[in-house]
What we know:
This protein has 92 residues and is α+β, with helices and mostly antiparallel strands.
Amino acid sequence: MAKKLYVGGIPYSSTDAGLKEAFSKAGNVVSASVITDRMTGRSKGFGFVEMSSDEEAMAAIDMWNGKDFEGRMLTVSEARPMTDRPPRRGDM
């Protein structure tokens, strides 16, 4: 079963492809995405990587958590499920 990882501290210049390439060293990457701001299109400095198995996800955490990636230290952990949030003032 695929396991989704949260990746924080991603350099603002990083791309989905670069993130996928880096995490593929730990195993098979199902998907990788850098989260961007809707208005500006710029990276928010975090993203998600989905690994194809729990074992590969743990290997990726061991390999990348607290390590340098393109000049910044990454924080890598198991992603938490998305929860409902109240609407922002601009979304009403």
